[in-house]
Amino acid sequence: MANPIQALVFDAYGTLFDVHSVITACESRFPGRGTELSRLWRSKQLEYTWLRSLMGRHADFAQVTAEGLRFACRTLGLSCPPETEAVLLAAYQALDCFPEVKDALEALAPRPLVILSNGSPAMLAAVVRHQGLEPRFAAVLSVEAAGIFKPHPSVYALAPQRLGLPPEAIGFVSANGWDVAGAAAFGFTTFWVNRADAPEEVLPACPRHAIRSLAEIPGLLG
Q1: pLDDT at residue 3 above 90?
Q2: Please, are residues 207 and 186 in contact by the beta-carbon 8 Å criterion?
Q3: What is the C-alpha to C-alpha distance for residues 48 and 53, in angstroms, rounded to an integer?
Q4: Residue 2 lies in a domain
Q5: Which of 94, 114, 144 is the last residue of a domain?
Q6: Which residues are catalytic?
Q7: pTM to 2 decimals?
């Protein structure tokens, strides 16, 4: 391989951290409605990142996450006073890792590992600290440095700038198909963690590797 992968960059939400672990908090406030609230909340959260990027009206991910929650609650007819909203938003700082994450990250050492996420710096610092993952990552990069959300190319450019490597020497790992498409279009070697057996996105760039778990990556890298 002319440019073997020298570093790995990971998406955070949905890839390392299970966004739907907020269902527990949602269910505690809205019994019987936690799953549908979590799904609509996540869907609207992502939609607002894309819409704000297209509108040129950036706000950080904490604000977008709160706005997505408010829309989801209104849509489902759920009353969400400030106290309830605060509890649900706090759940994003204590998300669960997917089961294989910690062992996979350990197996990938000593390559530099980096997070590149839509999350705000404070949100990312909180969840990484909560899971005790600070020693595993050489850097935690937020889109706030670019002032726009994924999949804008200027976001992906943050990783090679920080690592001092060309894109083709960097492996990009995400469970979000649209994110993988953006990263592949930028020039990264991509790993799509397709835990849900979803169809591939019909977009201009395809994942180099489609896997079911982060645990498969060390074997692919040899």
Answers
A1: no
A2: no
A3: 8
A4: no
A5: 94
A6: 11
A7: 0.95
